[in-house]
Write a structure and sequence with these properties.
single chain; 109 residues; mainly beta; four-stranded antiparallel beta sheet; three-stranded antiparallel beta sheet; 2 helices; 9 strands
């Protein structure tokens, strides 16, 4: 089974103060420290569009026509990162991994 990786210093899936669910620090995370790496199957844009709901929500684009995404319901939660509403000053994508731009205290997303 495919999965994304999340540091033990963060927890994903809790209710977000912004919208939906989020990724939150449970321990302090230094600026530049690796927080998450996106996992999934490599799919074309057409293949992602053909997926049944909610699987397209798991995708992240990695090139003009390639995406990482879950293919089954069982892979959906393990692949999800819940970073789509992350505070832009908190984390930024570098390829398909995330590091905070500023130090994060527990409870911050």
């Amino acid at each position: 089974m495919v999965s994304s990786w999340i540091t033990a210093k963060a927890r994903k899936g809790d209710s977000s103060g912004i919208a939906g669910r989020g990724l939150h620090a449970v321990e302090s995370i230094a600026a530049g420290e690796l927080v998450a790496v996106k996992g999934g199957h490599i799919l074309t844009t057409a293949a992602v569009r053909a997926l049944p709901e909610p699987l397209p929500n798991s995708e992240i684009q990695i090139t003009d026509d390639l995406h990482l995404a879950a293919l089954t319901d069982a892979e959906y939660e393990p692949v999800m990162l819940f970073l789509n509403h992350t505070n832009p000053t908190s984390a930024s994508p570098a390829t398909r991994s995330w590091s905070p731009c500023v130090p994060l205290r527990p409870g911050r997303s």
